[in-house]
Amino acid sequence: MTIVSYAGITRPSFLLAHPELPVLVYCKLQLNSTSTLRIPSNDMKRTEVTRFRCYVAERTFESTSVGSSLSNTGNVRLGRKQRSSSSLYSRPSLLEMKNEKIANRAKVYEFLRGIGIVPDELDGLELPVTTEVMRERVDFLHKLGLTIEDINNYPLVLGCSVKKNMIPVLDYLGKLGVRKSTFTEFLRRYPQVLHASVVVDLDPVVKYLQGMDIKPNDIPRVLERYPEILGFKLEGTMSTSVAYLVGIGLARREVGGVLTRYPEILGMRVGRVIKPFVEYLESLGIPRLAVARLIEKRPHILGFGLEEQVKPNVGSLLEFNVRKSSLPSVVAQYPEIIGIELKEKLLGQQCLLHSVIDLGPEDFGRVVEKMPQVVSLSRLPIVKHVDFLKDCGFSLHQVRAMVVGCPQLLALNLDIMKHSFDYFQVKMERPLDDLVTFPAFFTYGLESTIKPRHKRVAKKGMKCSLSWLLNCSDEKFEQRMEYDTIDMEEMEMPSFDMNTLTEPRSEDSASDYDDSDDEHI
C-alpha cells in the first residue's frame, strides 16, 4: 500500500446559507492538510477521501467528500442535520397576517368615515385591502349618480368589485336597452343588482319575462319601472301571481300587456295581496270576471292597499250618501276612487257643488253614483259649465236637476255643447224642459247621432222624447222606426251596465295598451 500525502488547493471562498441564519454569511475555509489514501483494488480504481473544516458564525461544520477519480462531480454532506431545502425569504406567521389584515381594514374604515360613510354593517364583508381600491369603488358609484346617503342606505354595495361586478351588470342592462339616464334611480331602488351574476341571476329573469309575452322592446321599460323584479325566484311569487289572475278570468293573451304596464304584480303574493283584494271587490257585488276585466284595464289597482286605502274609501263613499247597492258601479266606472285620498276630495266637492248650484248631501250622493270621476274635477271647469247652462236660459233649480240627472255635463267639451244646443233650439225647436228631462242629450255626437236620427223622425212625422230618440243603439233605433206607437217604458236615462265588463272579448282587443290611462278627467 502506497500512501501519498499532499496539500489540497480549493477556491479561496464561497457563500453558505444556513436555514437558521437570518442573513447570508460570507465565510472563508480553513483547510487542514488533506490526505489521500490510495487503496488498490482489482479494478485499479483510486478512491480519494477529502476532509475539510469550515467556521461559520462561530459554528464549526465538518464535511467529508468521497468520490471516484472517474467522476466529474462530488457529493457534499454537512455533518450537522439540516433541512433538505432552504429559502432566502421568511414567511409571516398567521398571527402576523391577521394583524396586518386588521390594520388594513382599520385604514379602509377610517377612509370611509372621513367621507361620511358609516362602515358598521361592513364587518365580515370582504373589502379591498387598500384605501386606493376602496376610493375607486366610491368614485365609480358617484359617477353613477349615487350619493353618500345612497351608499349609507345600502353600504354592502361597497363589497362589489368595479371590474368583476359593477361593469358587467351595467353593460348587460345597457345592452338590454335600459337607459343610462335611469341607472341612478335604478340602483337606488335595487342596489343589490350589482351583486348579481349576469348568467346565473339576471338573464334567466329576462327570458322568463319574454316568456310571459312581454315584448323585447318593452323589457327595458319593465325593468326601469320595477328593478326589484331581477331579484325574484322564477318558480316563486312571479309564476303564482300570474296563474291566479288567469284563473279568475284574466285573458292569457292580455298577460303581457298587463305586466308591461304594472310589473309590480309579479312581486305580489297571492294569499296576502291579490286574492284578498279580488275577494273584497266580489263582496261589494262586482262579479269575479268583472274584477278580472278591471285588472286588465287598470292593473295598478292591485297596488291599492286593502286595509289602508280600499276599505276606508268605501266607508267614505257610504258616509257621503252613496248607496251600498251602487258601490259596484261606482268602483267599476272609476276604479281609482278606491285608491286616492278620497275623504277630503268628497268633502271639498260637496261643498263646491253646494255653493255653486245649492246641491244637497243626498243629491251629491246621486251625482257620485252616476259619475264618480266628479271627485277629481277642479273648481274652474265646474263653474264654467254651470255658467254655460245658466246662459242657455236654465234656472238654478233646472241646472241642479240637470247635474243630478247627468253629472257628465260638468266635464264635457263646452264648444261641442254649444253646437248641440244651437241645433236643439234652431232645428229641433224643442222646449228647454226637454233638456231638463233628458240632459244626457249633450253626451251624444251631433253629426253621428243627433242630426241623422232627428231627420229620420221628422221625415216620418213622429213626435218622441229625446230619450226615445237617442238612448238606444243604432240597431235598436232601426227597430223603433218600425213602431206605430212609442213605448214609454223605453224612455229611461242611460246608466252604467256592469254586463259590459263580463261580455266576451272581441278577437282584436288583445294586448296593446296605451300607457296613458284615463285616471282623471
From TrEMBL:
Q: Which SMART domains match?
A: Mterf
Which GO BP terms apply?
Answer: developmental process; DNA-templated transcription termination; RNA splicing
Top-rank taxon of the source lineage equals Eukaryota
Pfam families the record matches: mTERF
Q: One GO MF term, please?
A: nucleic acid binding
Where are stretches of biased composition, namely Acidic residues? Answer: 509-521
Q: What keywords does the record list, in alphabetical order?
A: Chloroplast, Plastid, Transcription, Transcription regulation, Transcription termination, Transit peptide
Q: Give the transmembrane region(s).
A: none
Q: Where in the cell is it found?
A: Plastid, Chloroplast
Q: Where is the composition biased (Polar residues)?
A: 65-75
Q: Where mainly found?
A: plastid
- InterPro entries the record matches: MTERF, MTERF_sf
Please give an example of a GO cellular component term from this record. chloroplast
Q: Where is this region: Disordered?
A: 65-84, 496-521
Q: Which family does it belong to?
A: Belongs to the mTERF family.
> Which named protein is this?
Transcription termination factor MTERF4, chloroplastic
